[in-house]
Here is the input.
Amino acid sequence: MPILSTLNLKKYYGKDPQTTVKALDDISLTVEKGEFVAIVGTSGSGKSTLLHMLGGLDRPTEGKVTVDGNELFAMSDEKLTIFRRRSVGFVFQSYNLVPILNVLENITLPIELDGGRIDRTYLDEVIQALGLQSKIHSLPSNLSGGQQQRVAIARALATKPSIILADEPTGNLDSKTSQEVLILLKQMSEKFNQTIVMITHNESIAQTADRIIRIEDGHIVSGNAAPAGAKTL
Amino acid sequence: MITSSNIRGNRRLFSIFSALFLLLLIGYTATVLYLTGFSLVLLQLSLVFLIAVLGTGALYNRMLQRQITGFMDTLDEMVDRAIHGHERLTLFDETRLSSLEHKLLRYIEMGKANEQHLAAEKNMIKELISDISHQTKTPLASILLYSQLVAETPDLSPDTRQLLQQIEAQSEKLEWLITSLIKLSRLETGMIHLQSEVRPVTATITSALSHLYTRAGNKNIRITIDCDPLASARHDYKWTSEALFNLVENAVKYTELGGSIRITAEGNEMFTRIEVADTGIGIPEGELEHIFKRFYRGHNAGEYEGIGIGLFLAQKIISIQGGYITAASQPGQGSRLTMYLPQL
Amino acid sequence: MIANNNRKIVSRLSIKSLRVSPLRNLAVICAVVLTTLLITSIFTMALNLNKSMELTMMKTVGTDFHGSFKRVSPEQIEILKQHPSVKEYGVTLHAGLLRNEVFRDSPVEVKRVDEASARHGFIHFIEGRLPEAENEVVLSTWVLDKLGIKHAVGERVQLDIDITERVLKQDFIVSGYYEADKNLAIAGLAFVSDAWVQQNLSGIDPAESEASGSYVNTAEMSVMFKNAVDIEKKLDKVLADTGIDRPTGVNWAYTTSSLSDNLIEFVPYVAVIFIIMLSGYLLIYNIFYISVVRDVRFYGLLKAIGSTPRQLKRMIRIQSQVLYLIGLPFGLAAGYVIGRLLTPMLNTFSSEPMEAAYSASPWIFIGAALFAYLTVWVAAGKPGRMAARIAPVEAVRYTGVQEKRRMNKRSKRGGRLHVMAFTNLFRSKKKLTLMLTSLSLSIVLFSIIFTVIGSLDVNKYLSTFLSGDVVIRNEKIETYEGERPGDPYKLSEAFSSELAQIDGVESVEKVYYYYDIHDMDEKIRAVLQPLSETEPPEPYLTSLLERNSVYLGLYGIDPGWYDLVQKDVIDGHFDPQKFASGDYVLVAQSLMWEEDTYTSYYHPGDIMEFKNLGRSYEVMAVMNYDALYAATTQSFSTYGFNAFFPSSELTRELPPETKRPWALSATLHIDPDKLDSATEAAKSLAASSDELVVKSREDYRQELDGFIRVFQIIGYGLSFVIALIGVLNYINTVVTGVIMRRNEFALLESIGMTKRQLKKMLIYEGMYNVLLTTAITSTLGVFLTYNIAKSIAGNTAFTVFRMSWLPFVLVIPVLAVIAYTVTLSSYRMLSKDTLIERLRQGE
Here is the structure.
C-alpha cells in the first residue's frame, strides 16, 4: 500500500520562459509503506527539491503530493505543519538544529510542540544507540558536524514518524559511523514500520536500500517501478 | 492521573472553591448593603443578584461537566474508530485529541505491520516444511533401497543380516517419524485443511480398521464393531479415519495376546460417540491427563514401539473439527477412549 | 477538543531566542520606555493640571465642603446633621466685618468656625489653635502684616468689628495664625471664639439680620457627602427629608473645575498621544521586522520541525510582551517624574494664578500602561504574522524574503556602480516611498515647530499689554465677577501729576473707562433681532432684547494712544486731529455668542447717541473687537462692544445720573536713560495703595521669558523627538535593507566585486536617498512649512512669522553623515562571516 505518491510534480523557478529553471519536471512516483528508497543523482538534479516537496516544505508549481491518503498541498499551512510534526522526521544536510536549544531539547522538540509526553525509555535507547549520552546538555555550537547530524537523526526518530526524509544524512560522518547510523535507521524502520526516503551520493549506502530512484534534470530516469494500478491517487 | 484519592481530592477542592465563591458573593453584597444603607429595594436586588450569579455559576458548572463527558465520549468514539479501521475523527488538528488519535493509529499500524511480518514468517515456515518433506524423502528412500540391496547380497553372515535388519527397521522408523513430524507441523501451523461434511461414521470406522486387522490377528486380538448404521457426524473422512486409526492402533499395541477391542458408535443429542475400548494394560490415573501431550509415553509403555504423538495428532485432528477425545482407564483391566464428533 | 498543552515549549523558545540578541532587546526596551515615558508624562501633567485647577477653585471658594445650608438655626443644624447622607459637617457663624482703616480696600470678614470648617477651609495653623477665650482671635499672615503685628501667638491686636448695629473696638490676643493667599479668595477671614459671639451677638436676631442683608449672627452649615456627584440634588433631598426649608449653596469648585467640560481642549492631548503611539509603533515594528528577517532560517527550521504559524506568531508576541514588561516600570516611573517636574511650567500657561497640585491617581499608570501595551501589541502583530507565513523551506535555502516581483532590467551601462546604486533604489517602490515619506515628514514637522518657535517675538507680545514703558493700572476696575471693593478713583489727577513729575517721565497717557448700559437703537436691533429668531433661542440674547440694552465699554484715550489706533482699523479712516475734536467715536466690533464671530452694528459715518454721555457722536471708523487691547480691561461683553473717545469726552461734565468714569490706567513713556530710576519712583508711588499695580516692560518681559522658555523647551523637545524618530526609522530601514540583501552581496563579491566597490555602491545608494529626501523637503517641505507656520504664527499674539532656513540646511549634512555611518556599520556587521559561509547559507 503506497504511503507516499506524487503525481505530475513540477517545480519551476522564474516567469520568463527563457530563463525558467525546471527543478522538477513532471515527476510521478510512489513509495510503499515500509520501503527504504534511495534517491540518487548529480548535483542540481532536483533531488533536494523533490525531498522538500515530499515533506511539504515547499509548494510545487504544479502537481500533487499525497501522503498516507492526505493530499499535502490541499491542506492549510497549519494542518500541513502539524502533519509534518507528527508524521515526518527530517534530516537535512546542514543547519538541522535549533541553535538556542541544547541537544536533548532539540531531540524532544517535535514531541513538545505536539504537547505530548516524552517516552524517556525509548529516547534513552536512541540516544545511546547514536552515542550521544555525554552530549545531551551541550549546545549545537559545541558539537562537531557529525555529532550535529546524529542529533538530527535522533530527533527524526523521536516521534517514531511514519516517514523519514533524509538529505545526505551521512554526509558529515566517517564511513564506520555512516554504516552504524544506517543500520540503526533500518532497524528502527523495521521495528516501527517506517518508510525511509534518503538522498545520498554514496553508492554503498544506496545499495542497501530496497529501491534506488535516479533523478536527472528534474526527471526520474530509473527506479520508478510504480505499480500499474497506481494511477489513481 | 485519576485515582480514587485524586477524586476525593478533587471533590474537596471543588467544595473549597464553592465555599470561597459563596463567601465572596455574600461578603460583597453585605458590604454594599452596609455602605449604602439598608433599603428594601437594595436587599431584594442583591438577593436577585446573588441567585442569578449562583444560578449562572451552577449552569456553567453543569455545562463544564457536560463538556467533559462529551469529551470522553469523543475519545471513546475515536478509539472505536481506530480499532475497527473506520475513518479518522480528526486530521492534523492542534488538539490533544488529534495528537492522541495519531499516536493510537500509529501504534495500531505498527501492530498490523508486525502481524504481516508474522504472516510472512509463517509462510516461510510452510515452505520450509514442504521443503523438508521433499528433501528427506529422497535420501530416506535411497537408504531403504540400498539397505535392501545389501540384504539381497548372498552369503551374508547372520550378524551382518541382523545389522542390516536394524538399519532397515531404523530407517523405516525414521521415515515414519519424519512423516509424523511433518503431519504434526502441518497441523500446528494450520496448514491442514479439513473438509468436514456430514456423513455416516461407519465408513470412517471401517477405513480406520482396515489396516489393523492383520496386526490384531497376529496378536490374536478380537475386534468387534457395534455401530449404529445411521450414526453420522460432521467430519473429514480421511483425517478422522487416521485419528481413529491412531486410537485403535494404540489399543492394539497395548493389549496382550488374546485380548479384545470393542468399537461402538452411536449418535446423541449434539455429538456422535465413537468409543474404542480395550482390555489392555491400561493407563495409571496420574497419567490420564498427560497422554494427549506431544511425545508423551507412559511409564509402562517403554517396551512398546512408538514415539508418543499418535494421540496428540488424533486429539488435534478431532478438536479442529470441533470434537473432543476423552480417556478412561483401569490399570490392568483396559482403557476406553471415546471420540466425540459434532453432529452438525 | 481540548487544546494541546504545548504552551510551555513556545514560551521556552521565545525566551531563549530573546537571549540571543541583547542589542535588539535593548532597543525595544528603550522604545517601550520612551513611549511609556511620554504617555505617562502627558497623563500626569493633564491630571495634575486638573487637580491644580480644582484646588485653586476650591481655595477661591474658601472650602472643599460639597455644599451648604445657609442661615440655619441651631435646632435645624441638630436635625440636619442626623441625616444619613451627611458624612461630615461644619458650622460657621458670620460675626461681622473688620473696619480697621488698613482694611478699607481689602475686606476681612469675622467668623466663628468650628474645627471641621477650619480643616475643610484650608486653614493650616503655622502656630496656635482656634480661639476659645472671649478675647482670642485667629488671623491670617497677610492680615497680621497689614496690622503690623508680628507673626506670633499671644500678640496683642486691636480690631474694630462691625456687627451692623455698631462697631465694637476691642483688644484681642492672637491665639493662632495661618498662611493665606491674599489674592486668591474674595475676602480675608478672622476667627473669633464662641465665647465672644455669646457675649456680643446674642442680642441680634438672625431673622432680622437676614432680612436686612447683613447676615450677622447667621450660621451656615456646610456638609460633606459621600461624593461630589449631584450635590444640588443631595442637598435638596436632605431638606425634603428633614422638612426644613432653607437656601442651599453648591460648591461651584466641583462643578466648574474639570478639563472635561471643554472637549475641544482634549484634542491636542489626544493628538499628541496619538503621535507618540505612532512613533513608538514605528520604532518597535521596525525592530521586530528586522529581527524576523534576520532570523528567517531559525523560524523556517521551526516550521519545518512542526511549529504551526500560530505558534510562531505567539513566539513573537511573547517576546514583545516580555520586553514590554521589562521596560514598562522604567517608563512609568520616569514619565511620572518628568510630568511632575513639568507641571509647574504648564501652570504658568493659564491666566489665573494656580497652585500646583499633584495627582498620583493609579489611572495615570494604568492608562499609560494600557496605551503602551496597545502600541507594542499592534507593532509586534505584523512581524508576528510575517514570521508565521515563513515557508519552511527557508531553513534549507536562504535567499532572503522572497521578492515577488523580479525586475528584468536591461541596460547597456549596467555595470557602473552609481547606476547600479540608482537602480537598486527603485527595486521596491513601496519601501522607498515609505521611507522618504517618514523621513520628510519628520523633517517638515521639525522645521515647522522650529520656525514657529523662532518666530516668538517679545515685542509683539509686549505691545498687546502696554504701549509705553511702564503702566499703572487700577486693578479694582477689572470687572469679571462683579466689582471688587477698592477705590476706582485712585488714579486721580493729583496722582497723575505726581507721576508726571518723576524725573525722566516724558508723558503720562491715561485711559478712562465707563461701563455703559446702552439702549438698543435700530441699528443694533437690526442685527440682533434676526439672530434671536434662530432655534433654539439663545437665552442671553433674549434677555438683552427684553431689557433693550447692551453692555458697552467706553474708553477715553489720551493722545499718546492715537498711534496705535490705525493698525486695528477695519473700516473707515482714522484722522487724529478730527478725532481729538471730540465729535467722533471709534467703534469696535461686537463679540457674538458664537465663538470667533464678530459683527459691527455701525459703519463709518453713522451717528450714535450715548445717552449717558449726553450727546451723539459720528462713527469715524470700525475697529477689531480687541482693538487697543493694551488700553482695555481685557474683558469683552457678548453682544456689546468697546467704543473709544478722546479722554476729554469722559473727563468733562457729564449728565447727573451718570456715574463718574474711572481712570483705568496711566501709561508712562520714559526717557530710556532714566528708565530704571523712573520705574522705581513710579513703583514706590503706587505701593501705598492696593488697587494700583505697576508693570514695566521689564516685568512683562520677564513674564514672557518664562513663558517663552517653557514653550521653547516643549517645542524643541517635541521636534527633537520627532526628528529622532524619523532618523531612527531611517536607520532601521537602511539596516533592514542591507541585511536582507546579504546573500546578494555575497554573490556579487564572489563574482568579482571587491569589498571596496561594494561599499562604494552602498554609499551611493545612501547618498541618492539623501538627495531624494532633500529634493522633497526643499520643495514640498519648504512650501508646507511656510504656509503652516505662517498661519500659526500669524494667529497668535506673540509671534511674528519668520521663516527659519536652518532645518533645511541642516538636513543635508546630518542625513549624509547618518547614511554614511549606518550603511557602513551594517555592512561591516554582515561581512564578519567569510564569503563561503555567506554563500553556503544560501545553498
In short: The first strand of chain A starts at residue 2 and ends at 13. Chain A touches chain B at residues 33-34, 70, 75, 78-80, 82-83, 86-87, 114-116, 160, 162, 191-193 (CB under 8 Å). Confidence is low (pLDDT under 50) at residues 226-233 of chain A.
